[in-house]
Design goal:
Chain lengths: 160, 307
C-alpha cells in the first residue's frame, strides 16, 4: 500500500498528513484527525450523514477519496463553531426548533444548510427541501429541520 | 451484532494499492496502459467508490482524472454544444447554455442522486456507468450526442446508440480509456424537448422509468419533422423507440398521432419485471403514458401544441 502526503485546509487550519491510497475522507477525518462530528452512515453516498463542505460545496465524504482534497479546503461540523465556543446560527436554530432527535443526520443536515444559506439567506421552502434532499432523517419527519433552516436564515440576517 | 455488520458491504473498506493523480490526459492514459487493465479511471467517484466497496469492481489502482486541464468547460462551437468530460451534474444544471439549448439534459442532470452526488458526479461518468436508467443517458441519446474517447492509440468518436453495449458495458473501457468530451447539436427554433422520471422518491433513488424526447416541428404546416424518443430501463441499455419515432416523422401534430406513438413504444419496449422496480406490464403501461405525456409537453415547448 502506497502512502502519500497531502496538504489541505481543514476548518481554516492548514493540515499536512500521510494518507494510504485507499483512504476515504470520512475515515481520515474521524480516525486519523479525530473529528468525530462527521458521521459514517451508509458508506455509499445515500444517507448524507457524512456531508462536509469541499471548497464550500457539500459532498459525501464517505465516497470521497482523501487524495481529492489535496490543496483544497474542507469544512466539517466542528468548523462551524466559533473560536470562543459560540455555535453557528444554524446550530442554534436546530436546537431551538427541536430539529435534533437522535442527532445522527444533524451534521449532514447542517452542512447542507450552511452551503445553501451561504448562497441564499432567504431560501423558499422548496429550496430548503431540495438542499437537504441528500440527507436522510428517520426521526423528525423533516418539518422541524426545514423550520430550523428558515429561522437560521432570519437570525443570520439580524446579527449581520 | 458484529456478525450482521460484517455481512453488509458498508463494513468493507475499499481496496486499492495506488491512487494516481496525473496532470495531463497523456499521463493518465500512460498510467492506465502501464496497469494493463488493472487500474480504473475515477472522476467524481460517486459510482466507482460504492462499486469498490461492494466488490463489484476490483482493481489495483485508481487513476483520478478530476484535475486534468481543459475538460471542465461547457462550450458552444457553431451549432454544437461541447460538454467536457469532467463537467459535473451540478454545473450542467446551472449552465444557461444547457438550460436554453439542451433543456432536456439540464432536467435530467437535476434528478441525479442528491445535491452532494451532483456536486461530484460527472455526466461522462454517468454515461460510462452504462446503467440502463442513467438520468443523463436518455437526454443525450435523444439529443443524438456523440462521445470522444481517448486512449494511448489516439482519439475516436462514438455515437451514443453504438456507445451502449448492454449489461452496463459501453464502448469506453474505463480501465484503459477516458471520455474527453460529449457533443451534440444545440436545440433551436421549432424544437422542443421534455424529460420525465418515474421514481418512488424524488431524491436518491434509481428511476423506475426515464423518458427524454426531442421534437422538431414545422409550425406553418403543423407537422412533426423529426422526433427522438429515448427510454430506460426498458431494454438492457438506454433505448430509442424507433418505431414510435417513425410514426411521428412527417406526421401532422395531432392527438391521434401522439397516441399511436405511445402505443408503438409500448410494443417495442421490453422491460424486465422486478419486485423492487415494478412489473414489466406496469412499466410498459407507463412507457405509453410517458411517451404521450412527453410528446405533448415537447410539442408545446416547440411552439406547436396539440390542439
Amino acid at each position: 500500500m502506497k502512502e502519500m502526503e497531502i496538504q489541505f485546509q481543514l476548518n481554516g487550519c492548514d493540515v499536512c498528513v500521510d494518507v494510504p491510497s485507499d483512504t476515504l475522507l470520512v475515515d481520515l477525518l474521524r480516525d486519523t484527525l479525530g473529528l468525530k462530528g462527521t458521521k459514517t452512515g451508509c458508506r455509499e453516498g445515500e444517507c448524507g450523514a457524512c456531508t462536509v463542505l469541499l471548497d464550500d460545496i457539500p459532498v459525501n465524504s464517505c465516497i470521497l477519496p482523501a487524495f481529492k482534497v489535496e490543496g483544497r479546503s474542507v469544512t466539517t461540523i466542528e468548523g462551524l463553531t466559533k473560536d470562543d465556543g459560540r455555535l453557528d446560527p444554524i446550530q442554534e436554530a436546530f436546537i431551538q426548533e427541536g430539529a435534533v432527535q437522535c442527532g445522527f443526520c444533524t451534521p449532514g443536515m447542517i452542512m447542507n444548510a450552511k452551503a445553501l444559506l451561504g448562497k441564499d439567506p432567504h431560501p423558499e421552502e422548496g429550496k430548503i427541501r431540495e438542499a437537504i434532499s441528500g440527507v436522510q432523517c428517520r426521526c423528525t419527519g423533516y418539518q422541524k429541520i426545514v423550520q430550523a433552516v428558515k429561522s437560521a436564515g432570519q437570525k443570520m440576517d439580524s446579527t449581520r | 451484532m458484529s456478525y450482521a455488520f460484517k455481512d453488509f458491504h458498508w463494513a468493507n473498506d475499499i481496496r486499492v494499492n495506488e491512487y494516481l493523480l496525473p496532470k495531463t490526459t497523456a499521463e493518465a492514459l500512460e498510467m492506465l496502459a502501464e496497469y494493463k487493465g488493472q487500474a480504473q479511471v475515477v472522476s467524481g467517484g460517486t459510482d466507482v467508490i460504492p462499486k469498490l466497496r461492494k466488490r463489484e469492481l476490483e482493481v489495483e489502482a485508481l487513476v483520478d482524472i478530476s484535475r486534468l486541464p481543459g475538460m471542465s468547460d461547457i462550450k458552444q462551437k457553431g451549432d454544437k454544444i461541447i460538454l467536457g468530460g469532467l463537467v459535473t451534474h451540478a454545473r450542467t444544471v446551472a449552465s444557461l447554455l444547457i438550460r436554453e439549448k439542451a433543456g432536456v439534459l439540464a432536467e435530467g442532470a437535476a434528478r441525479v442522486g442528491s445535491p452532494q452526488i451532483r456536486n461530484m458526479g460527472t455526466v461522462a461518468g454517468n454515461l460510462a456507468s452504462g446503467h440502463p436508467a442513467a438520468d443523463t443517458s436518455m437526454p443525450l441519446l435523444a439529443l443524438n450526442a456523440s462521445v470522444t474517447i481517448a486512449s494511448t492509440e489516439g482519439e475516436r468518436v462514438v455515437d451514443l446508440p453504438q456507445f451502449f453495449q448492454g449489461g452496463n458495458q459501453t464502448a469506453a473501457d474505463s480501465r484503459r480509456e477516458i471520455i474527453t468530451q460529449i457533443s451534440f447539436s444545440a436545440l433551436g427554433k421549432n424544437q422542443g424537448c421534455c424529460y420525465l422520471r418515474l421514481s418512488k422518491r424524488r431524491a436518491l433513488t434509481i428511476a423506475i422509468l426515464v423518458l427524454a424526447t426531442v421534437v422538431d416541428v414545422d409550425p406553418d404546416e403543423k407537422t412533426i419533422r423529426d422526433a427522438a424518443i429515448a427510454i430506460g430501463p426498458v431494454a438492457p441499455m438506454p433505448f430509442r423507440a424507433r418505431d414510435a419515432e417513425e410514426i411521428l416523422k412527417g406526421a401532422p401534430v395531432s392527438k391521434e398521432i401522439v397516441e399511436r406513438a405511445g402505443d408503438a413504444a409500448y410494443k417495442e419496449s421490453t422491460p424486465e419485471s422486478s419486485v423492487v422496480w415494478g412489473s414489466d406490464e406496469y412499466k410498459k403501461e407507463m412507457v405509453k403514458v410517458f411517451v404521450r405525456r412527453g410528446l405533448y409537453k415537447a410539442l408545446k415547448r416547440a411552439g406547436c401544441p396539440v390542439a
